[in-house]
């Protein structure tokens, strides 16, 4: 049996989605609306952390 290896990086957050969202907002405010290369990487990391921390909706069958 072959197993495929996931290339997706999973981020585990100890913070709530609201806390991460506040950091994302602060990043945008500090940047003046234009992100540098370093800030884009930080934004990407924060969005992944936010997604991991956000409540997952229940899907009705």
Average pLDDT level: 84
Work out the radius of gyration: 15 Å
Number of helical elements: 2
- Summarize the main sheet: none
Element order: H for helix, E for strand: HH
Helix content: 40-55%
- Detail the poorly predicted runs: none
Strand content: under 5%
Shape: elongated
Number of strands: 0
Helix vs. strand class = mainly alpha
N-to-C CA distance: 31 Å
Q: What does this molecule look like?
A:
With 61 residues, the chain is mainly alpha-helical. The chain contains 2 helices and no strands. It has helices at residues 17-31, 37-53. α1 (17-31) packs antiparallel against α2 (37-53). The termini are far apart.
How is the secondary structure organized here?
Blueprint: H1 17-31, H2 37-53
Helix pairs in contact: 1-2
């Amino acid at each position: 049996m072959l197993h495929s290896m996931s290339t997706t990086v999973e981020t585990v957050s100890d913070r709530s989605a609201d806390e991460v969202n506040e950091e994302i907002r602060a990043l945008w405010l500090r940047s003046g609306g234009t992100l540098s290369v370093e800030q884009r990487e930080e934004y990407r990391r924060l969005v992944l952390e936010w997604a991991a921390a956000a409540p997952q909706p229940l899907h009705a069958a």
